[in-house]
Specification:
Shape: elongated
Number of domains: 1
Largest sheet: none
Number of helices: 11
Helix content: over 70%
Strand content: under 5%
Oligomer: single chain
Radius of gyration: 26 Å
């Protein structure tokens, strides 16, 4: 690395960005069971198992409420077709609550397959590194002390923006894991609403929201792929420009594209909801 302070400051901020992009690439290919060594997943499984007993109790309650609201009289319950319908609903709802964890993991594996296909189709095994162009480094190193003063201000602002964007990006991806854990832990309660016809919309909304969180990973990985392809062909910097103008133009365009990536990742839930009609 160059011993020039301006170059070092810019490259350090880019190194932070590259490390967060690499971390995100690994997180999106990781399952909740293996995240942070699996310690969090064990606690979530225990919570899910504890709430399953509450879910089964609520299952009976929602079933009775649904039966009362859908049957005009006790005579309707005696009808074979109606009794069979109620029995099948109760059995399916109990199965959903009992095997809710397996159902949610199956949905997760399906979406992980989508993410893997996107990565395979892109031809990228990892994210491309964002580095400073050599001609810009040479121009910065050739500046005198007085000429480098405005460069310090530009690089301080640019480096700060890039660093902040990199942390916002990684926080958003970590937030998706937190949402997955919360959905999994609390699943027995909303899934128990499938027992009653009047309350089944709660369970449907829960599964839709969970699928939306899963599909956020596909939007995030696709946005990272697009940015990685952009990083392979960085902004063109004309050597005819003054060094401070070169740096300002390069950092500005780079920060703009990073901001677009971060904005896309932050709005991934909205994109999925609009795309899937959730």
């Amino acid at each position: 690395m160059s011993d020039n302070w301006v170059v070092q400051n810019l490259q350090n901020s880019l190194d932070t960005w590259n490390s967060k992009m690499t971390e995100i690439w690994g997180l999106l290919t990781q399952s909740p069971q293996n995240f942070k060594g699996g310690a969090i997943w064990k606690v979530i499984v225990n919570i899910n198992g504890t709430l399953q007993a509450i879910g089964l109790a609520l299952l009976v309650l929602f079933f009775v409420i649904g039966m009362v609201k859908t049957c005009s009289s006790f005579t309707d319950v005696k009808k074979p077709e109606h009794a069979l319908k109620l029995f099948v609903r109760f059995a399916l709802a109990k199965g959903v609550v009992t095997y809710g964890m397996q159902l949610m993991l199956a949905l997760f594996n399906i979406v992980q397959g989508v993410i893997s296909n996107i990565m395979t189709a892109s031809g990228l095994t990892t994210t491309a590194k964002t580095t400073l162009p050599n001609n810009m480094v040479t121009a910065i190193e050739s500046c005198s002390f007085l000429e480098s003063i405005p460069l310090w201000a530009v690089t301080l602002i640019g480096g700060l923006v890039i660093t902040v964007l990199s942390f916002i990006l990684i926080f958003t991806v970590y937030g998706r894991f937190f949402k997955l854990y919360m959905y999994t832990a609390l699943a027995p309660i909303p899934l128990s609403t499938f027992a009653g016809e009047p309350t089944q919309n709660v369970g449907k909304a829960f599964l839709k929201s969970y699928c939306g969180v899963l599909l956020e990973g596909a939007v995030i990985i696709l946005a990272c792929v697009i940015f990685s392809l952009y990083a392979k062909t960085p902004p063109h910097v004309s050597t005819a420009l003054a060094p401070v103008t070169m740096v300002w133009k390069y950092v500005g365009e780079l920060a703009f594209n990073m901001l677009v990536l971060v904005g896309t990742v932050k709005m991934s839930d909205r994109i999925i909801h609009e795309m899937m009609g959730f």
